[in-house]
Predict the structure.
Amino acid sequence: MRYLTARKRAEGKGASHTGTEHHWFMTVTSVALAFLIPVFVIVFGRALGQPAEGVIATFSHPFPAILTALTVFVGMRHFAKGAQMMIEDYAQGSTRKALIILASSISYIVIAVALYALAKLTMVGFLFEAMH
């Protein structure tokens, strides 16, 4: 008697043999974003409209900084995989490859810029606290 789950029966059945992994990645990241985005909106909303010192003070604390980093990272990886899936459905040949590389590159560039800005904000916050 075989005890196979539905996932095990589906693995390797797609054209590229990665459809199940892709589906699970998108499911997990969408659930993670369902929890991250509302909390991020609340944290970001409280910082919005404050003077620079208030924004720096908000994002120099660990929870808002880590939450922002996680939201950007998970969101951009979700975007890249979703864009890849859409491109694979509608483009062919070298255009497909170029567009997938472009979408992935945009994702990593946004992650790098956001993490750099966040690191700079937190460092300014630490320096600001050390001076006072």
Notes: The mean pLDDT is 88. The chain has one domain: 6-131.
